[in-house]
Write a structure and sequence with these properties.
Layout lengths: L7 E6 L8 E7 L7 E10 L2 H8 L23 E8 L3 H4 L8 E4 L2 E3 L5 H4 L14 E2 L11 E5 L4 E2 L6 H21 L6 E5 L4 H12 L3 E6 L2 H9 L3 E4 L6 H9 L3 E6 L4 H5 L5 E9 L13 H7 L2 E4 L5 H12 L7 E5 L3 H10 L5 E5 L15
Parallel strand pairs: 10-11, 10-13, 11-12, 13-14, 14-15, 16-17
Antiparallel strand pairs: 1-2, 3-4, 3-8, 3-17, 4-5, 5-9, 6-7
Helix pairs in contact: 4-5, 4-10
The structure holds zinc ion (2 copies).
The site of one zinc ion has 11 residues, from helix 3.
Length: 378
């Protein structure tokens, strides 16, 4: 290992699901293997899914808890790092991957590039031909550590001039909201309602919808979230102060929204989404409630109104880079609070209470800069 890279590091790990977050200071730094790079983690967002995985309440597609989780578990899938070492031969084989480059540590970690979904450009659903796909939420150590090895063949190379603080939460929250807006297929001047508009995902959904020329209503609770949502140029409905949110939305949109994006993680938030839609409207689901959740909507309402329901899991790498580009160019400005790495347990508590307007980004390590010494090359 080059002298500038330590052999041990600080990580935030969970030994058992539902157990506490523990900071360990002598966790080994892995060497990048064949087709891998080593990145020094600079910043990472804290996503609701990290919280559910730690707590053991993350639900799979069957609605049952996901138990196949690597333990000890190191979460973090909204990270931005700087490449500090390359695996054998990578520099010669692929000059686009260089020491000093900015990279993302995302949900998707390794994909097969050969299955039906990879071939369609939906590699976040990779089913694995030949190799088992992995992600940084369940199978591999994520960004809650100082150094991470990444697959060079599926690397998220970020523009060198993007602000790593703003790029970090865009890699999951931003991408998920961006993809939901694509799925919503709304036109200029059409109405979009974002439920949970003041949270980590919601704030992005509001801004991507506005960037698409939609008229946007954010539904959430409290003054802080109202201030955030209206600062982007959207209207706001406080569900705590509005006795009948559905009627209010119907009235504001003259017959309902063209799309409702449900970015809240509570089952109650899904119940009213269909009734906020106009005929032919689209319900886009992006938050997953603990235990999987159910949509309490009658078949009659779905059929008679011709409602479309679309779920989505993050997005592909191309969509991720498009979402980042809108942040790099200032079209979308996520509200983030930078906090020290050691605050992670506190941030989990605040997320659980729904206290955070915007997103918390943890500072994991100092940036060695783009001109990391060439000696780091292995
Ligand atoms: Zn996430
Ligand atoms: Zn695949």
């Amino acid at each position: 290992m080059p002298p500038s890279i330590p052999t041990t590091q600080t990580v935030a790990l969970v030994r058992t699901l539902g157990g506490p977050v523990e900071f360990v200071h002598d966790y080994p730094v892995q060497l990048p293997g064949q087709d891998e790079v080593l990145a020094k983690v600079l910043y990472t967002g804290v996503c609701q899914s990290d919280l559910h995985t730690r707590a053991g309440t993350a639900a799979g597609a069957d609605g049952k808890p996901i138990t196949a989780i690597k333990l000890p578990h190191i979460g973090g899938h909204e990270g931005v790092g700087r490449i500090v070492a390359l695996g054998p031969g990578i520099g010669e084989r692929d000059p686009s991957i260089q020491i000093g480059g900015l990279v993302g540590i995302r949900f998707s970690s390794r994909v097969c590039r050969r299955c039906e979904y990879c071939l369609k450009g939906e590699e976040q659903y990779c089913q694995g031909v030949g190799i088992k796909p992995t992600n940084h939420l369940h199978h591999e150590d994520g960004a809650f550590q100082e150094y991470v090895c990444l697959d060079a063949g599926y690397i998220t190379l970020l523009p060198q001039d993007v602000d790593p603080v703003l790029a970090a939460p865009t890699l999951c929250a931003g991408l998920t909201a961006y993809k939901a807006m694509k799925n919503a297929e709304v036109g200029v001047g059409e109405w979009v309602v974002v439920v949970g508009a003041g949270g980590g995902l919601g704030q992005y959904a509001v801004q991507y919808a506005l960037a698409q020329g939609a008229r946007v209503i954010g539904v959430d609770g409290g003054q802080q979230k109202r201030d955030l949502v209206t600062s982007f140029g959207a209207q706001f409905v406080d569900f705590r102060e509005t006795p009948d949110v559905v009627s209010k939305v119907q009235e504001m949109t003259a017959c309902g929204a063209h799309a409702v994006i449900v970015a809240a993680a509570s089952s109650a938030a899904f119940a009213q989404a269909a009734s906020m839609l106009r005929i032919g409207g689209t319900m886009c689901l992006i938050g997953i409630p603990p235990g999987g959740g159910h949509i309490e909507t009658t078949v009659a309402e779905i059929v008679i109104k011709g409602i479309k329901i679309k779920g989505n899991l993050v997005g592909n790498l191309g969509e991720c880079l498009a979402a980042v580009e809108l942040v790099r160019t200032g079209v979308v400005k996520p509200k983030v609070y930078v906090r020290p790495f050691k605050d992670l347990p506190k941030v989990y508590e605040e997320l659980e209470r729904g206290d955070i307007a915007g997103r918390v980004v943890l500072k994991i390590g100092e940036d060695p800069g783009a001109n990391v010494e060439r000696a780091s090359k292995l």
